[in-house]
């Protein structure tokens, strides 16, 4: 997609896998030049200009586990410390998250999102899923090893499909009860074990809105670090637009015409009396924009 970058993509960090798998090389980067991303738990810390704050390894608790994020464009190693506790509540209820998405330039937001996902996973996986013993950080933070049975555990990413459904030059959008009034978005759901992306799209749309879809195609993706999801944006068609709403999943679902969507987009954050366009940091914004402009 040749439009503005999708939020949380475009990190300037080189992940430098050749360093994180080499203990000696990694140790050699843990020096006075190394940078430490300042975090308040899992939340970003901003300077007076609204940018991320960086310190040095000397600022870190000597007992903290450190994750190697990679090398910055100046050749400095970047690290983040694992907090004492992982995420405990929904990210959308945290004002610091909304501030980060609105203030940080794309590269910094992507860097923060990747770091948050990684250190949050470590904070929530200090025990082995196989035997229950404690685990230790390995490969610069891109693995945890069980101290007892030796099992290897790797940072988790959960795939989520988020999809447009098209019928007669209209799009199907839905809203959850937690959404602000008049806010609608593309329907979404987790990919389940044993199904393809196309199958997940078809199943989720039918479960939530009672609509059968065909011709599923991929459009774009977005890492969503709350806690660690990969949003897989898709487009599909239906031949039968009748909606049967699953009210345990959605508060409402409607078909919107191209004209209605164009008007809501032009109206900006205030939207129209019937619709607020998806926010720019959400992949739904990019999906609907792609559809309108294609």
TrEMBL record:
Q: What class of enzyme is it?
A: hydrolase
Residue intervals of the Nudix hydrolase domain: 155-282
Show the catalytic activity.
a 5'-end NAD(+)-phospho-ribonucleoside in mRNA + H2O = a 5'-end phospho-adenosine-phospho-ribonucleoside in mRNA + beta-nicotinamide D-ribonucleotide + 2 H(+)
Entry keywords, A to Z: Hydrolase, Magnesium, Metal-binding, NAD
A GO cellular component term found in this entry reads: cytosol
Which domain of life does the UniProt lineage start with?
A: Bacteria
Q: Which Pfam families match?
A: NUDIX, Zn_ribbon_NUD
Q: Which GO terms describe its biological process?
A: NAD+ catabolic process; NADP+ catabolic process
Record-listed E.C. numbers: 3.6.1.22
What cofactor is this protein dependent on?
A: Mg(2+); Zn(2+)
Among the GO molecular function terms of this UniProt record, one is: NADH pyrophosphatase activity
Does this UniProt record's set of keywords contain Ligase? Answer: no
What family classification does the UniProt entry report for this protein? Answer: Belongs to the Nudix hydrolase family. NudC subfamily.
Q: Which PANTHER family match?
A: NAD-CAPPED RNA HYDROLASE NUDT12, NUDIX HYDROLASE, NUDC SUBFAMILY
Protein name per the record: NAD(+) diphosphatase
Protein's organism: Qipengyuania oceanensis
- Output the lineage of the source organism: Bacteria, Pseudomonadati, Pseudomonadota, Alphaproteobacteria, Sphingomonadales
């Amino acid at each position: 997609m040749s439009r503005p970058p999708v939020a949380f993509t475009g990190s300037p960090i080189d992940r430098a896998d050749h360093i994180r798998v080499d203990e000696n090389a990694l140790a050699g980067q843990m020096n006075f030049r190394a940078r430490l991303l300042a975090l308040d738990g899992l939340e970003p810390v901003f300077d007076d200009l609204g940018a991320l704050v960086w310190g040095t390894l000397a600022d870190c608790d000597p007992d903290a586990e450190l994750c190697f994020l990679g090398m910055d464009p100046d050749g400095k190693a970047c690290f983040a410390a694992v907090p004492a506790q992982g995420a405990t509540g929904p990210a959308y209820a945290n004002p610091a998250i909304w501030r980060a998405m609105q203030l940080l330039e794309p590269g910094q937001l992507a860097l923060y999102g990747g770091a948050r996902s990684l250190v949050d996973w470590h904070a929530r996986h200090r025990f082995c899923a196989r035997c229950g013993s404690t685990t230790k950080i390995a490969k610069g933070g891109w693995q945890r090893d069980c101290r007892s049975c030796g099992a290897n555990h790797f940072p988790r990413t959960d795939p989520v499909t988020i999809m447009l459904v098209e019928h007669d030059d209209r799009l199907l959008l839905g809203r959850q009860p937690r959404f602000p009034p008049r806010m609608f978005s593309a329907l979404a759901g987790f990919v389940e074990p044993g199904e393809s992306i196309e199958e997940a799209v078809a199943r989720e749309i039918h479960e939530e809105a009672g609509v059968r879809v065909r011709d599923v195609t991929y459009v774009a993706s977005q890492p969503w670090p709350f806690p660690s999801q990969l949003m897989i944006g898709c487009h599909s068609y239906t031949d039968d637009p009748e909606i049967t709403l699953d009210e345990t999943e959605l508060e409402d679902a409607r078909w919107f015409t191209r004209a209605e969507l164009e008007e809501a987009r032009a109206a900006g954050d205030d939207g129209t009396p019937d619709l607020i366009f998806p926010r720019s940091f959400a992949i739904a914004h990019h999906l609907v924009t792609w559809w309108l402009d294609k």
